[in-house]
Amino acid sequence: VTALAAALPGIDVRAWPDTGEPAAVEYASLWGDAAGDMRRFANLKVLFSLGAGVEHILGNPLRPPDVPVVRLIDPAHRTGMIEYVLMRVLHYHRRMPEYAAQQAQGIWRERSQCAPGDRRVGIMGMGELGTGCAEILVRLGFDVAGWSRSPPTIVGVTGFAGRDALAAFLARTEILVNLLPLTPETVGILDAGTLAMLQKNACLINVGRGRHLVEGDLLAALDSGHLAGATLDVFCTEPLQKDHPFWTHPKVTVTPHIAAMTLLQSAVPAIAENVRRHRAGEPMVGVVDPARGY
Ligand code: NAP
Ligand code: GLV
Q1: Which residues of the chain have pLDDT under 50?
Q2: What is the pLDDT of residue 216?
Q3: Does the C-beta of 56 come closer than 6 Å to ligand 1?
Q4: Whose CA is nearest to atom 1 of ligand 2?
Q5: Contact of 32 with 54, CB cutoff 8 Å
Q6: What's this model's pTM, rounded to 2 decimal places?
């Protein structure tokens, strides 16, 4: 709040739940649905998500339906996601799970090394974050494909678009990165059927949303030997339940939804700039289309 107030001189910035007179609230920045019924803010002009995802706002039946929703687009967020995805792609590409297993048994054994150009990485969701990850993987020489609604046009990336192209995209993929938004069309998209389309021994990096993945189907695909590993940053229930099999599964790496954290120093200027734009009658950055869901 202090940082936002400093970035918005002349504007009364308050921390929830100290909103003051509800009718005086024009802008709200939020994560999750903790604010409850947003319709009581009768003069609300914009709803800002404190993250890239907006399903927590669009899915709230108590949101004022005509107020624009704006997602977070900020460079530090993008960098965080690129770091995380790169770290895990390299982890699988350089066979670190196998070396970790060898170390546990004291085995000194060189394994074959695959050139990046022979490693097929597939990214689902070629938006702000998927594109950032694809660009750097291409620069490192990986064979990268992207899947989105409209055909991706990143130089060096093989583009696939729409449901009809999903099977072909998955069939070529050895390391799958999910960076889709959660919408009615993408919920449960990673299920037994789609996981089975991946190459044998493929690995999954899920940094989109937990509900993209049918968790039991992933466990079955790992246990059958079809998939070699999974890195999961997001889960159907967060925090992940204490007794969830992911915690101890030998092929699963769990992180607590930290792939790209919202950092104050870059999120605040991004939100403040959109408030400035809105007040100046200029287009804001990251306005969501509620009909598309992202
Ligand atoms: P974005 O810029 O809105 O990009 C979304 C991409 O997904 C676009 O390429 C879009 O296709 C594609 N897409 C949407 N619906 C689709 C569908 N039905 N079929 C195929 N492609 C579809 O979003 P972003 O900023 O990159 O963020 C993506 C998601 O990452 C967020 O929504 C959030 O869930 C997740 N995220 C996670 C973390 C974390 O810490 N784990 C952090 C930040 C974000 P078009 O290009 O054709 O529109
Ligand atoms: C985090 O998950 C985000 O959507 O920014």
Answers
A1: none
A2: 98
A3: no
A4: 51
A5: no
A6: 0.97
Q: Quick: pLDDT tens for 100-119.
A: 999 999 999 999 999 999 99
Residue positions annotated with a catalytic role: 209, 257
Environment class of 32 (CB within 10 Å of its CB; exposed 0-12, middle 13-18, buried 19+): exposed
Q: Is 30 helix (H, G, I), strand (E, B) or coil?
A: strand
Most informative mutation of 49, 129, 131 for ligand 1 (most atoms within 8 A of CB): 129
pLDDT score, position 36: 81
Which H or E run includes 138?
helix 128-139
What's the pLDDT at 34?
A: 73
Tokens 């792609």 correspond to 89
- In short, whether 132's Cβ falls inside 6 Å of ligand 1 is no
Look-up of token digits 């990096």: 205
3-state helix, strand, coil in the chain (%, to 5): 35, 15, 50
Determine the atom of ligand 2 nearest the C-alpha atom of 51: 5
- Supply 144's token pair: 């990268």
Distances (CA, A) of 235 to 3, 183, 214, 289: 31, 15, 10, 25
Ligand (nearest to CA of 289)? 1
Give CA–CA dist 263/191, Å, rounded. 32
For 178, residues 6+ apart whose C-beta sits below 8 A from its C-beta are 124, 125, 190, 204, 205, 206, 207, 208, 212, 213
What is d(CA 288, CA 10) in angstroms, rounded to the nearest whole number? Answer: 27
Q: Residue whose CA is closest, atom 37 of ligand 1?
A: 208
Helix/strand/coil for 48:
strand
